Amino acid sequence: MKRRLFSNVIVYSSSISGLGKSTLIKNDFKNKNPKYTYVYFPLGDNINKEDIINRLLKYSGQRIALHIDLYYSEQLEVLREFFSEIVIKVEIPNGNIDFKVLFPILSFFQNIHITSKSMPQLIISSRIEQNIQIVCNYLNNINNINKYDIYIPNINNKTPQSIKIKQMSNKECSNIIFSYLRKEPNYYQVQSFINILAEQLILLSKSYHLNIDQLFDYNRIFNNPYLYTFRKFFVDSLTKVIEQFITSTYNDIIKDQELTHNQQKGDIKIEDAKEKAALYLTNKKIFQFEKIRPSLVLINEDGQSVSIIKTTNNNQRDDNEVGHLMAVYHLDYTTKRGNLIDYNNLKPRDFLIELKKVLNLLNPIDEMDKESPREFNKKKLENLSDIVKSYVFTADNFMKLILISLFLRTDIPVVLMGETGCGKTSLIKIIASLKSIPMYTLNIHAGTEDDDIIQFIRNNNLFNDISKNKDNEEKTDMVWIFFDEINTCNSLCLITEIMLKHSCKGESIRENVKFIAACNPYRVDVSKREIPGLLDEKYIVSNLVYSVNPLPHSLLNFVFDFGSPNDKDIRKYISNITYEFLQRNIKNRYILNKIHTIAEDSIFEAHKYIRDNFDISSVSLREIRRLSILFEWFCNKLLKNKFIIKNFKEIIYLCYYIRLFDKNKRIIFIKKMERSFKNEIKFEDIPKKIENEIATAVKLDKGIARNKALLENLFAIFVCLNTKIPLFIIGKPGCSKSLSAQLIFKSMNGKNSSHEFFREFPKVYTKSYQGSRTSTSQGILKIFEKARKSLEKNTSNEIISAIYFDEMGLAEVSKNNPLKVIHSQLEYDDNERKIAFIGISNWPFDASKMNRGIYLSIPEPDEQDLIDTALAIAKSYDPKLNIKEFHGTRDFYHLIKILSKLFIQNKFPTEKCIIDDILMESIERNFGGLDYSIEKFKEMFKTLYQNVNDISKYDVMNCVLNNIKDSDSRYLLIVTKSSISQYLITLIIQELCKNYVFYYGSDFDEDTLKGYYSAKILNKVQISMNEDTVMVLKNLSSMYPSLYDLFNQNFRKVGNSNYARIALGNSNTQNYKVNDNFRCIVLLDKKEINEQDPPFINRFEKHIISFENLLDSKAINLTNNIFNDINKFYSAFEVNNIENEKYGLFTKENTNNVFISQYSSESDIEECIIEYYNNNNYNLCIIHFDVYECKHLNHVNYLIENIESSKMKMN
To answer: What range(s) does the AAA+ ATPase domain occupy (predicted)?
Structure first.
């Protein structure tokens, strides 16, 4: 059947981005529908029906020509409905999504596909002063510009040696432009080429030094023939470099993004993807100073001075190139005679001298600069040295500064892409500060939505229509807008429109607004990364280095690929920064230089070792910045000694060493450092000494062993709290992460600290946040706001406001991807009100987070660690003391604890049978919960202790009863093989004559994703935990992380009462009282075990129980017979013949739709059940379901039992 095409709907697509779809659509409307109002209508990202309707209502009563610029959106159904109801012209973007597959309706419309060969002609303005006319006239006269000036009216003066610019046709201009752009460019690249070249050619036309007459005069003076041919050299080299710059990285990034996207979809195996990604990374064409070919000259912003970028070395020497560069270099009145500037060897002050010329700055360089003015227009001019502060210029980033400034001057948006910490953001901020241009930054994260971006545009008065701006007044000053981390959110459609169309949801933005963005690359992780903590496939969100989205292809045309700094630049950063803080502490020049050399070599060696063993993203310039912060603190606060070389060991230990998880790599690292420091003191000696001093000061309770994990945790937490450097601690459950933090928090009370060591340091005030799968960006931001707000009341240095973020790993795997919001919050130099941040997790994060702080990776405990810990626990047990348990590798530690307790209770028996019973009970109490786990452990134990008899003997009911009765035991996790676990456990609790409460969680999406349901349940929990009761929990996985502190039983003491921290909502964490006799039991179906977090399971004593544990053999046979009879009865029962007056014939599908699927939350279905009971209509038809066919069935049953129970109490 022939498809029917809708003539008034046209779909435009192209083989690559930038082939002129938008322009073609606009011109088609203009030519074919002149009476229609053209409306540009971008559609994608976060959309809803209401938003679309409101945007269209503005045009009610008008005849509109609607240009839909389509982008990807998760709201596919809204888009499908939209396409089925409206007449449009649709522009399909280029990218990794096939929109014609997503929306089959598009194939019913007329389709126009554009390729590089069929792309529309350039639209050429007839005005000769336009950029394209200027460029084409210059290029058309390229062989004459050494003899003649190009005269451009209103730009330069006409002379006898000038050729007047003439109007050139579309065809002439197209042929000239495309002859210089050889790789089938798109229109974005063409426009960039024209804009940059035009700016430099206009400056050339205006230049006093570079006009024909002046060059001839200079040649008579200097007798340099290269001056005659310089103008053609200038244009030739400029065209070649611009062409390379705007086209070289585009295809590479597209290939990398497509590979990564295909791997994420599962179309390519991860092994193959890693191999190809590694090859792309090796051959990737990133911007680097040395790779610019040929060398070139740029005219600076002052219009007269020039920047000479010589990139060839002696081995690549081109005499013609060098001759032209030297000729123009000697014309610059600001330069001295001699060789060309070698940017690789410039000192910091020399870079500032060059900055003055490049950016046309009036500011004095520093206090020694006596020639520059100190004020301008009655405004004081700040020293350049004070503006750049500790920023380190290299040849590479200085060239980036020149080119980025050039792009922004020529109205080209800039997207800075590079590895985390490579200097993208800091460079943009430096340029804006130097040029005194207001720059407004939007720190984008996963929670950023279209409305947030629109509000940002409005608040900064960027709309052309002033009625849409916050201040309702016209702004004429130039501003820069910086969108940081653009590809972390789902609003790339809107960001692309803003940056490329200069409009926001179709509303135009002021012309004097320049847009810059920064992002990390969307790429596969090719490294053989260590996995500290837990390795669980379901927590590997992706195989990406960064948790980001691919950029739209149109934005890729404006990517400035930073890559990561090379070894030479890294060494220079290290050298400059170490010299800067060393010279403030060492006056003797000889000692200064000697220590500086040792420090530079050792730090560079450490930096390189980490990078080479992991990934280029594993270390960055942020480490080097942290070195200076730590050095100042160790010298002035902690050690206060003159043995400065020792301080470098501590800071290298913290910044590099403790992140190593593999003990063999740690050993190699130590050997490298000891070679670098060239002295007899062992690398670990000083750090270990400080670690032990801190451990002594915190006063470890009995049962807490001074193992390596605890000592490293205490040291890192203490230092990072004081320096306010963020700290991430990654390790498996039970490696003292939480304990160490609580010990330091408790000990650091300022002048009121119990130990004199801590009295020298500020008091710590903590704000706690509990990570979970329901964490949101907004909730995390609130806790940062609270922490910063606490500093408002006390601005002295006597307090530290700290955030303690527990279970960050669970927030990392949240569907909301909330952790991206912390990036800007953790930038040390961007936040005046600095707060400390301690984040702990059982899983590692992506590089962009780990890179923002010190990273402590806790290795597996070795044999000696386990022996030390076991002895400490065994020695600590005293039945007369109420002692906090030690959080180690919990099952092992509790095995030792129960052994110790039972031996003491039995007065250290010598009878073999009693010893055997104690050993078996201790094993059974701590290694149950999985099929045959106890048998396996007993088998291993039997190789060491031959007296183990029946390894299959296991009295599970006795273990469960002993746990519930013992208030010192861990809380209980019961695993069952059936859906009636709550019935089994309530029988046991009733047998003990104990009170109990039972809370069953909802599986409805609205309840699991929203915070209010969790808050409701957690409020009930905090009431129950203050009572003499047994609290039974089931199906509450989403909120268990909020109770981890309670499950740990690492209670805080206030008087004689215990308190645990409960996270009520996303940012409200408080301490609540725990009754001494309170017990907690969590029920899990056996099928749920693999879905649970190991840190959660690890906290409990675990057992599997079933009805077989409650019945004797005779009762088991009887129940089997009854079960078989019921099945026979059920199979003969015609379920589908049941009919109801209201709902008709009942089927599984009908019942599910009527009573389950239409409800989105517990409160909804609870109202339905209550209504049935109130109307005496008990037929809920749940007989149609097996429990696994409807995940909400047990929940419905729980609600019914609650209602029945409440009715019985009322009666």
So the answer is: 410-551, 723-887
Extents of the domains making up the chain: 2-118, 141-346+393-411, 413-465+477-563, 566-681, 683-882, 883-954, 962-1113, 1135-1208
Quote the strand ranges of 520-573, DSSP E.
559-563
Q: What percent of the chain has pLDDT over 70?
A: 80
Q: Taking the domain 2-118, which CATH number applies?
A: 3.40.50
Token pair belonging to 1208: 């019985």
The reply to whether 962-1113 shares the fold of 2-118 is yes
User: What is the CB neighbour count within 10 angstroms for residue 611?
Assistant: 18
Residue 2's pLDDT band (boundaries 50, 70, 90)?
very low
Amino acid letter for position 1098 = N
**Separation CA 937–CA 924 (nearest Å):** 9
Residues 472 and 83: their CA atoms lie apart, in Å, by: 36
Q: Give the mean pLDDT of 483-496.
A: 92
Backbone φ and ψ of 91, nearest 5°: -105, 120
What is the secondary structure of 880-911 as a DSSP string?
Answer: TS--PPP-SSHHHHHHHHHHHHHHHHTTS---
pLDDT tens for residues 14-54? 888 888 888 888 888 888 888 888 888 888 877 777 788 78
pLDDT > 90? residue 1067: no
Place of tokens 């060789």: 339
CA–CA separation, 1126 vs 1121, rounded Å? 9
Does 502 score more than 90 pLDDT? yes
Q: Which amino acid, residue 86?
A: I
Q: What is the pLDDT of residues 913-967, one digit of tens each?
A: 788 788 888 877 877 777 677 777 777 776 666 666 666 677 888 888 888 888 8
* Tokens 């060393």, located at residue: 582
Task: Give residue-wise pLDDT tens across range 585-594.
Answer: 788 888 888 8
Do the Cβ atoms of 837 and 828 come closer than 8 Å? no
| Nearest alpha-carbon partner for 645 in 716, 693, 597 | 597
Helix (H) or strand (E) holding 442, with range, is strand 439-443
342 φ, ψ (degrees, to nearest 5)? -100, 100
Q: Is the dihedral of CA 898, 1030, 773, 441 positive or negative?
A: negative
Q: Taking Cα atoms as reference points, which of 853, 851, 854 lies closest to residue 422?
A: 851
CA-CA-CA-CA torsion sign (1070, 1075, 1079, 1085): negative
Q: What token pair was written down for 26?
A: 């606009």
Overall average pLDDT of the 777-794 stretch? 85
pLDDT category at 1185 given cuts 50, 70, 90 is very low
Domain spanning 683-882, CATH class: alpha beta
Does residue 491 contact residue 526 with C-beta atoms inside 8 Å? no
Tens-place pLDDT, residues 1009-1049: 666 777 788 888 989 999 999 999 988 887 788 888 888 88
Q: Which residues contact 1089 (CB under 8 A, 6 or more apart)?
A: 930, 975, 1097
Strand partners, 417: 519, 561
Distances (CA, A) of 1127 to 639, 1108, 1120, 1132, 1183: 77, 20, 11, 9, 13
Q: Which CATH architecture has domain 962-1113?
A: 3-Layer(aba) Sandwich (3.40)
Distance (Å, rounded) from C-alpha 1070 to C-alpha 769?
A: 10
Q: How many CA atoms lie within 13 A of 417 on its CB side?
A: 28
DSSP H or E segment with residue 89: strand 89-91
Query: Of 153, 333, 306, which is closest to residue 233 (Cα–Cα)?
Result: 306
- In total, the chain counts a number of residues equal to 1211
CA distance 671 to 689: 19
Cis preceding linkage at 294, omega within 30: yes
CA-based nearest residue to 418, from 559, 520, 488, 487:
520
Architecture of domain 413-465+477-563: 3-Layer(aba) Sandwich (3.40)
Which pTM does this prediction carry? Answer: 0.74
Any idea of the CA torsion for 1172, 1178, 1180, 1183, to the nearest 10 degrees? Answer: 170
